[in-house]
Design brief:
Elements (H helix, E strand, L loop, with lengths): L6 H9 L3 E6 L11 E8 L2 H13 L4 E4 L5 E3 L4 E8 L4 E4 L5 E5 L4 H10 L2 E2 L11 H7 L2 E2 L2 E2 H4 E8 L2 E5 L21 E8 L1 E2 L2 H18 L5 E2 L11 H7 L6 E2 L2 E3 L7 E3 L5 H19 L8 E3 L3
Parallel strand pairs: 2-5, 3-5, 4-19
Antiparallel strand pairs: 1-2, 6-7, 7-13, 8-14, 9-10, 11-12, 11-13, 15-18, 16-17, 17-18
Helix pairs in contact: 3-6
């Protein structure tokens, strides 16, 4: 009689101590909220990430890929099955008349922007206050201060069912905070990306970053928070609609709609995901009633709800 091999045993056999069981996901999100993952696997490089994903697909194991955790709300009950923590952080700078940088998908975007500034390379100043990773930014066309990934991306290397392939910004079908990846039109994992830069000086780039940073500090809350919670509707701003609906400062449990910016939700400590979700539903209902606008979430709800 042939013994059946459990898929989890295969993960341990192939990945060893990179596999952990029953791990709280709260420390892996910017809001510090969320229950446990049954299995957490950490990938330390783009090659490791690709190998892990191929193994999961071969074993037909469902998974959630988690980068910086800035754009997800993990349920209190957590995530059944496997969560992959993307810690692929390799960076290569390419100098010359048309400089660029290649970054693996687990690189923290704001850190990369500041590294570019230290080298006198311009182009990513807008990203210096953007939370999350390169992978998440490519997936959702992250942007701020008039810039976005679509404007900087030369190519992104994706792991598709056909293997590792490079896609241009045009092929990724970018629109406001979305792409063919986020819309579910292509099933693929972001492994790395090359971003266009421009030669400048450390002083000039740093000055712009400091200006953006001061604006962000004056208009957005510090600490453990989630934002932007909702996409800006055409011709309007979600934060302004939430404020004019009288919802800034509204609190459920330890979750609060920021008194500073209506499109940010604050975790005052030991906040439940259910309280954040209750605030989301309150905002959507109230804004619809008062302004006739259907707000669309920018943050994704993951796990068992």
């Amino acid at each position: 009689m042939v013994a059946l091999v459990h898929p989890i045993d295969v993960l341990y056999a192939k990945l060893g101590d990179k596999v952990k069981e029953n791990v709280s996901l709260a420390p892996y999100t910017s809001a510090r909220i969320g229950g446990p993952a049954d299995i957490l696997i950490t990938a330390e490089s783009a090659d490791e990430l690709a190998r892990t994903m191929k193994l999961l697909r071969k074993q037909q194991i469902d998974f959630l890929l988690l980068g910086g955790g800035s754009n997800v709300l993990v349920s209190d009950r957590g995530v059944r099955g496997v969560v992959v923590s993307n810690r692929a952080k390799g960076v290569r700078f390419h100098n010359g008349d048309e400089p660029s940088v290649t970054a693996e998908s687990g690189v923290i975007f704001s850190n990369l922007a500041n590294r570019c500034a230290a080298k006198g390379l311009a182009g990513l100043e807008w990203a210096a206050t953007v939370p999350g990773t390169i992978g998440g930014a490519v997936y959702g066309n992250a942007g701020a201060f008039g810039g976005d990934i679509a404007g900087n991306l030369t190519w992104a290397e994706l792991l598709t069912e056909n293997g590792r392939e490079k896609f241009t910004a045009e092929q990724l079908g970018y629109a406001y905070r979305t792409s063919i990846l986020k819309r579910g039109e292509l099933d693929a994992i972001v492994l790395s990306a090359e971003l266009r830069l421009a030669n400048s000086t450390k002083e000039a780039v740093t000055a712009t970053i400091e200006q953006f940073g001061a604006h962000r500090k004056a208009t957005q809350p510090p600490g453990a928070s989630m934002g932007s919670m909702f996409k800006n509707p055409n011709g309007d701003y979600a934060g302004k609609l939430i404020e004019s609906a009288g919802l800034k400062g509204t609190r459920i449990g330890n979750a609060e709609i920021s008194p500073v910016h209506g499109n940010f939700f604050i975790n005052h400590g030991a906040t439940r995901a259910e309280d954040i979700r209750a605030l989301i539903e309150l905002v959507m209902k109230t804004v619809k009633e008062k302004h006739g606008v259907d707000l669309e979430l920018e943050v994704e709800l993951v796990g068992e709800w």
